[in-house]
Amino acid sequence: MDAKGLRAGGRGGRSGGIAGEVWLRAEKPRRDTLTRDRITAAAIELLDEHGTAHLTMRRLAERLDVAPPTLYWHVKTKDEVLDLAVDAIFGEVRIPDRTGDWAADARTLVLRWRATMLRHPWSPALIGRPMLGPNVLARTEFLQSTLARSGRTGQALAAATHGLANLTIGAALTESTWHGDLPQTSAHELIQANADRYPTLAATRHLDAPGQDALFDQAVRAFLTGLDQDT
Fold this sequence. Notes:
Layout: H1 36-50, H2 57-64, H3 68-74, H4 78-90, H5 102-119, H6 134-148, H7 154-181, H8 184-193, H9 199-204, H10 212-230
């Protein structure tokens, strides 16, 4: 998937290493009962409970009831833990069965992807590192091969893939952060009080953002219709 530039700040834990390196390195032979899967599951629990700012290697080790050196045997940095966690939640996105309608197949995938990110609201802001995990790659493969059925190749196919992925990530990021934290009443009052300066926003009640599911679905349909008409 994509969304260059979307990075989580202040990740903490050990720094350094190569972004995405965890996927380029074989899992170390076990010398204890800990595994990447157990580490990942515990990390997702902490992230769902507290978000990225409160995830530290110390807290993760405590959740797993192990000493920090044991944790570092399996993962080098907090970034690697986050890479594992993001890929794991991609595994929750069920890949659609292929039909004769490429646009419907692509729409089904991104609707499920957005819903998954909203269940894990810490995740959209992390999708900016090299995403080389097997779950991410399998779903990116499905998305691009589906869009290729529209007749696109080369740069046009890459642009369509990036565009739809970034539409999905951007929508989830906005919903999980900005709309989640913004006082809706205050935002509405601000716009209405300055309706002469923001007449379109005031008329459409844009910041009220009602019906996000339907709004996103409509945006995806419009994007895919544009692709279809452009082929």
